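FAQ: What does the model actually see?

It sees only this:
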Amino acid sequence: MLTGIITFLIIFAVISSILYGLKLAKTEKIDAVFGNPERAKGGAHWIIVGTSFLLIAWLYYSWDLAKSFYPQSANELCQVAKVNDSMLSLKYLFPIEEREFKSTSIIRSENKNIEKLANEIRNSSAIRNQDKDKLLGFIKKTKRTIPLLTNEDLLENETKIKISELTNRIAWLTEDFQKISYPPIKSIEEENTRIEALKIQGGWGSSGTAVENTIEIPTIPETKKGLKFDAAAKELTLISDDFFKLRNHNSQYKTLMKEIKDGIKKYRSELDDTQEVASILAKDVLKIARRIEYASIFPPKTLDAMQQAILEFDVIQKKEQGSLRLIDIFLFPTGTIISSGPNCSEQGSGRWLPKPSDTLKKFTLLLKPSIGFKNIPLIWYEMMDVSKVVGFILPDWIADIIPGKYPVHSNDGTVKPNFKSKVFNVVTGEFKLFKIPVPMGHIWDSFLRVFLGLVLGIIFGVPLGLLMGLNRFAKGFFDPLIELYRPVPPLAWAPLVITVFGIDNVGKIFLLFMVSFSIMIISARAGASGTQLSKIHASHSLGASKWQILRYVIFPNSLPEILTGVRVAVGMCWGTLVAAEFLAGTTGIGFVENVAKKYFQYEVIWITIFVMGMLGLLFDIALRKIITKTIPWHGKG
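And it is asked to produce this:
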């Protein structure tokens, strides 16, 4: 219901925004020159249109629209899929799903195998001539079994009767399937059992309390139409099972087949260890004979009536689907519901593209501190004593430089604190003050790693880059070192860095520092070396010192390049962080995605992608605001 309302609101927003945009275009000043950056400002209504199209595409291709407007369609399509699955083995016998009869395909294939094996026997130098004659005799007999199965005159009357009975059962099913009264009313006990099972199975894509448990498609029929197709599927399964138990083995075929088996068994028992090749070839002949024996080979015209009955039922069952076929065509793009035995599943974009409604439910579960992901919420907070923050900031050596000694235990086994020990407790955070909320969770851990790695890269990379852009010694000395490691992909460094620094935060932050450090050096160096010489000469002529030139000329000129480098570094850091958390991590967005992919938790995977995109977008928006505030002259000559 909620998804349907949101869909209508999105469509309304798109139409309104387009009409507003067209109206605004008509009232735009005629003298607004093409290429003027001012024409690109604003346009929030087009942002709404673009975002809305993205949401509509997600709702449509994830099948959430079908789930919202036709919630029982998946269950009904599941029953239809059961019918198609039950008919599939029968259809493959005839040129319906395939281009030719199954019997024709098997005969052609086995004739080729017989000829190929006969040539192998004739050309083999590892077996004696008398063995070749015996093996070729077995081959000849095996080939003779095929005409015994395809001869209409040799078809036994009992086999004809069974085929006729199966054909009639399909015809009766076709007739009954069209009736409103089909399927017949079950007993009260069976119906109560079905109703109780319906209460347990849940809905389409319903999620349990655990993140791992999800029902993809409810399989027990819920509607009258579903019951009809479910009953037909069960009957077709019985017909199919009965047919494939049937064998077209007449007396002449049985006699010849027994002769082949006994002859090969006796021949192989008479061979010694030196004639292993002949034994293997004899076994290969027997394999071909058994494949022919177990195949459903019938005379050409024997199954024509059954084929016609199957085609007639297929037409009727498609007709009985009614509006469900249109729902399947228009609201289940790039796939449909398929059946495999008693289970049904989504096949197509609806399988790997989770529905927004299911994703939101899963996201809510991950946010709950009591559930989270691996008992850690995506983002939450914990109360931390301020003393821990003080202990983290203040170095321990402050207590060491205070005159005096640390307390020593007395004869009675007690330790009395002194001033030096009390200072030590302060600098190590071993005291109680008051608690403050501190962020925690997978998102916070990843955010903090990226932020620290980026800040460290800016702090050390920008000054070095400016120096390399202004000094030939610095450029010549540091350039080979930077260019040596910069082209190497971060993933190549990850195993080494994690091995040296460990799998905790230090290794990941250092890896992110390496990524941002090289980018910031290149950006700052390009900005410094690109400063216009006329500006520097003008500053010299006005009596500016080197520091003043750096502070008021070179650095402002380098800022656009530096801030652009920061935007590039943010994206690189996120990509590297996810890879690092994939390799080694117990928390973070990359860790969540790595675990989710092992269990095919598509909702969780898409949640991690969305979270990373949103965090990257927030970083970028913040940088754009900084660029606008700090370098308003950029792009204005």
